[in-house]
Amino acid sequence: MQASNVLYPNHSQSEGFFYILRKNRGLSFYTGLVSLLLIPVYLLLSQLDPRTVMGINTWIKPIKFAVSIGIFLWTMAWFLEQLNDFPGFRNRMEKYFVIALSVELILITLQAGRGVQSHFNNSTILDSVIYGVMGLFIFPMMVVPILMDRKFKLLSSKLDPRILISIRFSLWILAIASIIGFFISQRLSHAVGVPDGGPGLPLVNWSVNGGDIRIAHFVGIHALQVLPLFAVLAIKQSWNTLSVKIVSIGYSILVGAVFVNAMFGRPLI
Fold it and tell me: Can you tell me where the transmembrane regions are (predicted)?
């Protein structure tokens, strides 16, 4: 008998991560792939189009979101693949993630092409509608991770406890990150103590002169990758569940710390 697959307990060791995603979660796999394949297109457009929005090239935002959405969809596809006991729920969640994030990227691309802000933009009726539609599709992200956690709670005897702990912590952190995102949208600004669009760190453009709430949102979302990867390392190194709990709690504190730091108007660096 072939050894158990750490990432996919119900599959053999010979079946790789992307092979199983493509075979079983094709909707997420191919949508994520398209998102990542758009990156060179956006990069080319950034070289051909000199327009700027909030101080940076208009195509930088689509690039960042294409990277984030591709990684997010593949990560969530892996999460959902663990929920073999709930096929209906799993399929509904996959469709939600794909549709919501596809709408997000399409509208961000549209606004980049128009040379205007995609977020916090109520300058015209069209811009308000676009921003409202984005919010409508993303709003459930505050609740969906909690619904997923309830399903994972029922799988406690079927997954390696280190993987399970990392998934459940990361889902709750995602819910918190989504609430932070909603908080940003209600403020119509991500900067604290300075106007949006000032000097920022390369690529991410996080403010270097004041607080930036986007950092907590970003760190929180990427708990989805960081914590499970640590859990896999813990399995490989034969570390116990306590190590995963400590790292997960520490990561949760980190999200809170960068949020508080931003709200005090302090830059990350």
Answer: 27-45, 65-84, 96-116, 128-148, 169-188, 215-235, 242-264
CA distance 69 to 102: 8
Dihedrals φ, ψ of 83, to 5°? -90, 55
Q: Distances from the Cα of 92 to the Cαs of 162, 175, 214, 265, in angstroms?
A: 26, 18, 29, 40
Say which DSSP state 142 is in: G
Residue 91 is encoded by which pair of tokens? 């399929």
What 3-state class would DSSP assign to 122?
coil
Domain ranges of the chain: 1-159, 160-268
| Token reading at 256 | 């809170």
For residue 200, the tally of other CB atoms under 10 A from its CB is: 20
Report phi then psi at 4, rounded to 5: -65, 145
Residue 195: Cβ-neighbour burial (10 angstroms; 0-12, 13-18, 19+): exposed
Which residues on neighbouring strands pair with residue 57, listed in sequence order? 52
21 in Cβ contact with 74 (< 8 Å): yes
Measured CA distances, 163 to 9, 42, 87, 199 (Å): 10, 35, 20, 39
Encode pLDDT of 189-216 as tens digits. Answer: 999 999 887 788 887 889 999 999 999 9
Nearest by Cα to 263 from 201, 219, 223, 210: 210
Assigned token pair, 79: 């999460």
For 43-53, the pLDDT digits (tens) are: 999 999 999 99
Tokens of 75: 């990560």
18 half-sphere exposure, CB direction, 13 A CA radius:
5
Kindly report the backbone phi and psi dihedral angles of residue 53, in degrees, each rounded to the nearest multiple of 5, phi listed first: -130, 125
Determine the Cα angle at 30 with ends 177 and 232, to 5°: 55
